[in-house]
Specification:
single chain; about 180 residues; alpha+beta; 2 domains; three-stranded antiparallel sheet; transmembrane helix
Amino acid sequence: MNRAARRTVSRLLMGAWLLALWLLLWGRIDALTLAGGIVVAAAAYWASRLPAVPLVRKIRPLRVVVVVAEFLWDLLWSSIVIGWHAVYRPGRVRSAIVDVEMRSRSPLILLGVTTSISLRPGTILIDLPSEREVLRIHAMPVYDQQDADAKRAGVEQTEARLMRAFVTWEDSPPEEDR
């Protein structure tokens, strides 16, 4: 599928989503409500230049399960670590700003990575340049370079897992999956 076709399909998907929301708000489906929804969705697109919905070329369900399990484990473990530091070492917890280079150019993968790290206790996204090549995160606890490298590696692993689970048009699959 070429870029123009992907863009058209993604815009049609966003238009369908807006139409579905319109119909849900009205609570009924008839010819007038449907026609009004189409007009409103087209006007919203024209007036606001809504972004295209990122398309996925291939979804690997077992890899998605791994991504979800990894996220849940990270959520549990980071909660335990941050809770322990908050109770037993509240004045001695150190943090750092860590830069993480992104391999993916897909907005979908970027959204998954930033959401995942921001939902985990102890990390939060603090800067995302418009080029989307480097994420700057605030991480804790970080006491030395080894801890900072471990935080960076954790974000890179999350990105790699997402790239294996959702093969996007912007990215090629990681080397081991070719």
